[in-house]
Design a protein that fits this description.
Strand content: 5-15%
Strand order of the largest sheet: 2-4-5-7-6
Radius of gyration: 41 Å
Number of helices: 11
Order of helices and strands: HHHHHHEHEEHEEHHHEE
């Protein structure tokens, strides 16, 4: 910031030197013209004439007064004249500099205006112009992001209303069938009961995800940390996904450094990995392998999740972790989820002091989680 004021300070110094120079020159000119120069005699004659005619003085008295006031006090008059000229010129210079404050004030007012163009200031205030325009762009981006987030939230409400209604309708439908058909075969009744339970569990999952992201957004996540054997956790999670992946010919492979341990909340970290794996399972091609790799990276543990599937467009990579965002709106909630899993994962990783990111190219998507050891 100090360097930014260089141009303005240089101009101030130049103006100060110019004011000083102009004052000295003006004072010297006046003294040379009226006291010691070409107009000295007419000035003296005029002063003596005024003394004689107005104040009725003798020539000798008038001459003595002239010498006493002017000839013997040249330094006093020069200093007084110099000070007067300095004040006049400084006032004019300061009036010019107040224009800079007016420009900055106008620029601040433009920040509050929605339709105003880019803020333009004098060349000496170029750094301030850049800062004001940066602030303006930041405010516009925040307003746009807030509007977009509000729209996504509204869309999510519509999605959840539909997603909740679907399993709820099934639950009501099957329970109604079982209530009306008292003589329903036991095998069919068990089948309907199983379907009803699945739909009820799905309904509970949707509601829990919605409450979780709201809770994480409103309060600090409390962590109950302990030492976690990362390879063991990842292998256990891969086994849990086996029944879900097998029907589509998918599988999970785990490659992790031995004895790789982290200090973290096991339940919440497991949820992060579970949400990423669910996303990889939902968006990967059939008969492909989801690769999990865990390794040490400096003072961190780096966990990679790779799957082969449709490439995520570059414009959507930065938004997949945002709240109320759904990557593929055409997917049903049964396959694509509620769109909250990755947002929840980001909040948990952030609470652990880590980072989560995604990269997608050539039909390979890779999620990267970095956690402190």
């Amino acid at each position: 910031m100090k360097k930014n004021y260089g141009k303005l300070k240089r101009k101030l110094v130049v103006w100060m030197l110019l004011v000083l120079l102009l004052s000295i020159v003006a004072c010297a000119v006046v003294m040379y013209v009226f006291v010691d120069g070409i107009f000295q005699a007419p000035f003296a004659d005029g002063f003596i004439r005024i003394c004689r005619t107005v104040f009725q003085m003798s020539d000798d008295t008038a001459h003595r007064i002239y010498w006493f006031l002017f000839r013997d006090n040249k330094i006093f008059w020069m200093a007084s004249l110099f000070l007067l000229l300095m004040l006049i010129i400084c006032y004019q210079a300061l009036s010019r500099f107040t224009r800079y404050f007016n420009e900055v004030g106008d620029g601040v007012e433009q920040l509050l205006s929605e339709n105003a163009g880019p803020i333009q200031l004098s060349p000496e205030l170029e750094f301030m112009e850049k800062q004001l325009n940066t602030i303006r762009q930041t405010l516009e981006k925040r307003a746009f992001d807030a509007k977009e987030a509000e729209q996504r939230k509204n869309d999510l409400v519509v999605y959840l209303a539909h997603d909740i209604k679907t399993p709820l309708t099934s639950v009501i439908g099957y329970l109604s069938l079982m209530e009306e058909a008292y003589d329903m075969p036991e095998e069919q009744r068990k089948k309907y009961m199983s379907i009803t339970l699945d739909k009820a569990c799905r309904l509970e999952q949707l509601i829990n995800e919605f409450f979780d992201i709201t809770r994480f957004n409103l309060q600090t996540i409390l962590l109950d940390k302990e030492e976690i054997n990362l390879p063991y956790m990842l292998l256990q999670m891969a086994d849990e996904f086996y029944p879900m992946l097998t029907p589509q010919g998918k599988q999970v492979s785990v490659s992790a450094d031995e004895d790789l341990k982290i200090n973290a909340d096991p339940d919440k970290i497991a949820r992060v990995f579970n949400n990423i794996l669910k996303n990889a399972a939902a968006y990967s091609y059939p008969d492909t392998t989801i690769e999990i790799e865990a390794k040490r990276y400096q003072e961190n543990a780096c966990i990679l999740f790779r799957n082969r599937g449709k490439t995520i467009p570059a414009g959507k990579l930065e938004t997949v972790f945002e709240k109320f965002y759904r990557l593929d709106e055409t997917r049903s909630s049964h396959t694509g989820g509620s769109g909250l899993g990755l947002a929840i994962a980001k909040e948990i990783v952030k609470a652990h002091g880590g980072t989560i990111s995604v990269d997608s190219a050539d039909e390979v998507t890779e999620f990267k989680v970095v956690l402190p050891l």
